[in-house]
Write the structure tokens for this entry.
Amino acid sequence: MALLEVKDLSIEFGGLKAVQDVNFEVDNDEIVGLIGPNGAGKTTVFNLLTSVYQPTSGDIQLRGKSILGNPSWRTSDIGMVRTFQNIRLFRSLSVLDNVRIGFHNQGNYSLTAALLRLPSYWREEARYRERAQELLEIFQLADVAQVQARNLPYGQQRRLEICRALAASPLLLLLDEPAAGMNPTETHELMDMIRFVRDRFELAIMLIEHDMNLVMGICERLIVLDHGEVIARGLPEEIRANPRVIEAYLGTPFDDESEAANDE
Amino acid sequence: MDKIKLRSYLLNALFALAGYAILHVLLESGVINAYYRGVILLIGINATVTIALNLATGMLGELCLGHAGFMAVGAYTSALFTLNSGLSGYIGLILGLLCGGLLAAATAALVGVPALRLRGDYLAIITLAFGEIISVLLRSFAFTGGARGLNGIPLLTNFPLVYWILVLTIVAVYMLIRSRHGRAILAIREDDIAAEASGINVTRFKMTAFVISAAIAGIGGGLYAHYIGILSPNKFNYNYSIDYMVMVVFGGMGSITGSILSAGTLTILPELLRSFSDYRMLVYSVLLIILMIFKPEGLLGQKEFSQRFAANLMRRLTGRKIRSAASYDRHELSVARETTRRARERGYLTEQGPGDLGVGGRRRRPEENIPVAGTAVAESEGRTLTRQGLDPGPYEPAERKGRR
């Protein structure tokens, strides 16, 4: 049984079919790329996975259980955490607090315990702090733990966002254009980091990306969307050579002969 | 419990007691006369309500323009309680305050359910309307005295009560904010979409903060009723709500100590300016404009006047090292160092440092897993996949609540 199974997923906004009969699976420990030209429906698929939208038809199953009908905030409880195309950090809070908020879905002391500072508060807070510190060490953010998130340079903000997502200990990490706005060196570091995250935390990663070097470099499998439909899937080498994918990205080559043939 | 934290809590408790003792002696011995006594009580009441409003507006980030309405609910409820319950003295007052707070909280829940489910400034509009509705309702009911309001409310509000309710409010809001619940509230202010993606039930935490805020405002209203002795529906109008909003912004959105400071300043200022008579409000507004030009984030911004802050300030002024701040930094550092050491021992961190994440990384096979607490096991296609939580210590397994 695959970790994530998406079956005949469709969503319509009014008359617009943003996603149509999309089927795919993500296995444990896989890095899967979701690519396609602008407006193909990639982010819509992510929004469906995280229950921001409810599909018109079809099903999404995580470890064999349907996640439809869940409120969006339950997504991280179930085991999926996402990052955002335009970084969304808690900007005026400290780096440490950003990560601690990531632990929210594992919290188990009550409001009463917080207000009265009962032992469970101290125990859990100590645990959060240690685990946050470890995560920050791993992502080289420990030195800036007390700095406001908005004051971090761009690359560190990206790392912090991934760090916060990992705090929720997901089974599947959804990265929405992680390399957006990065230069080639930073992108290269990011590739290393994505692989490292998968290995260290033993989770599956699904990513949307336009940077083909990154996609071809780290994805083990690719799913190509165009106009809301899956037009190809397979290994990066296969996708690279797939005529439909080339057509989706570059358009149909203008061909005099076929034009002439059509005229007749 | 954390020793450093315990010490700082004790120190704060000591400050609160000392502040009480000093003011109490000054009031009792007559050094502070009856007029200033009244001003001090008003400062305490205003500070309580300002902190409440700050929780909703500065910390949760929802603009709320109807706190006078919640104060009115609390004020009328507690006044009616002390007038009609037959319970005399402070027992009646305290029960009345509790009733006022509870009713204000219930009203807030009613207002909040439709408004807080939505993103955007709907709460501002709805609370604005709520404030107006309350004052119209108070004017039209017979049991609230109609347009004449309530008279002859026993003047039971005294210094100890105001002081300790203020202290309790500060403690409650502080304890709330420095917890996972409070961090969730701050996260919603910062970015509600990211908060939701982090597993925070945005609507629930908005409701929590808003209802607590209204309850405290209701208690503040009850104190005010028993301080002034007469209630009129005209008092709790839109301007009164705005007065508190000004105090919140003036002190700094999200700062508890800023709220106290601004409640103090903005209560004393109109009193000091009495000699300007007609020009009083003009001077008041000019001062506000000047502050907003030169310090738009308010007196304290999001900062708190904490022991650490005070110690740092002392150090800068006197050039001497103050123990509190230094030892706190040392404590934080030692925690960090200890964690790193333990992480190394457990193999989370490699010696070459986390910087070299290592191209390709080392793929850990299942038998290489280090058995620690916090290992969740997922069955998949006949092979067992062991997921290593980050949990380093002897704590409970990091189970996912509600994971299905």
In short: Chain B has two domains: 7-304, 306-347. Chain B touches chain A through 65 residues (CB under 8 Å).
